[in-house]
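Following the same procedure, backbone shapes were mapped to integers, yielding the entry below.
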Amino acid sequence: MKYSSLALYCGSSAGNNPNFRTLAADFGRRCAEKKITIYYGGASIGLMAEASNAARALGGRVVGIAPNFFSNRSVIDTSLEELIIVDSMSERKQRMESLADGFVILPGSYGTMDEFFEMMTDAQLGLHSKPIAIVNAEGYYDHLLAQLDRFRADGFLRPFHYDLLIVANNLDELFDKLDNYQNSNDPEWLKLIKK
């Protein structure tokens, strides 16, 4: 698959594991080296900042998209050359979905999961056909992946929708799978549900 940009969803906290900070920074550097634009939540804190700062340190393009209710003093990275201010978290997700060629999920919590599941639902419904990838570093998302397996086993998630998700254990595997991505959605199923 050809792509020139990725939306990054990850924690606005750095978490307790320094390896996750390293992972986020390495992701930012890899994107800069590959000339891949990063769209992210515009934060100056947490794993978001680790990725953004590392990419920009190598001359990478980083675009922040942030809602207008966050504080410029403690949350928003006002040093970004490209910062898009929107009215809501929902609008932020919509802008990132429309602008990015794919979506990458690093460790995070509520907000990251909200973004992940919205992108997955939109992919399931054929509203986009872009890759969505979880980096399951150190087994961080093992329980989430087990729940997705349960969805499928109990008949709530069709196999071709389950296969929409890319799972990678490290960045080498991530970029290899993104390069070779093929959307698994069923065109016949989409014809049945859409006008």
Remarks:
- Strands lie at 5-9, 37-40, 62-67, 82-86, 103-105, 132-135, 165-168.
- DSSP finds eight helices and seven strands in the chain.
- The helical segments are 18-33, 46-57, 89-99, 110-124, 142-153, 159-162, 171-179, 187-193.
- The mean pLDDT is 96.
